[in-house]
Amino acid sequence: MNPEQHPGLHQLSWPEVKRAATCDSSTVVVPWGSLEQHGPHLPLGTDGFFAEKVLQQVLNLLPPQLPIWWLPLQSLGFAPEHQGFGVSFTQQAETMLAQVEAIAKPLAQAGFQRLVLFNGHGGQISLLDVAARQVHGRHPQLGVHSWFLWDVEGLLELIPEPEGREDLHAGLAETSLMLHMAPELVQLERAVPEPPPAPPPGLSLEGRCPSAWHTMDLSRSGTVGTPQRANVALGATLYHKLVQGWLTSFTTLLQSPWPPRRSIESSDRI
Question: Which of 62, 151, 190, 220 stands 20 to 30 A from 71 (CA)?
């Protein structure tokens, strides 16, 4: 990431961090990934790689006067659904909640106004949402945002069917994005197409009426989708959409007073 335009908080001295915290709308963003199997053709660190690199590009494009700093990628996530394929790492939910609190507490005490958890792993969306609410409850002066990398308006419309419905893990979208961003990390010749089984009408694995699922219930290779049609052109389109979408979101956040902060008067109400 650009150390001159938007340096990492860990690259500053403590007096510099103290001054940064006093800036209006001071914001710290933490990219969050997971170390989990991504089929036989993508690396374990895929989710964190995407979160970190997209964030890096967004920060490079943000105006230098905007008050945002970043912390290093948190690679260890919550991914029990991917165990059983070689080595996939996960931590307990309680441990991850405590980890977010350990990051947030000193930021709140220093006076930072916002923390953004920029998450690249779909399996921990709900957990980071819980962490955000829990942290904000303990530190109401700190606005906490849990943002999921792939949650960009119009992004899913770029993925053709049936992959748009079937790609849950290491499929067309992730493989194409990696082919664009780091082709040397893709072993496409080893990719195995394993679309998930179709759920009964009205039910789903993800989305509306979701079910908890384990990858080993759906796949023998670790892939839940069809990566064989992955291509650089689709990856470039997805990357551009991700960067532009998050550039807009971060700019809007940093130029606004959002979220509303509790006033002294309201906190004293019965």
Answer: 151
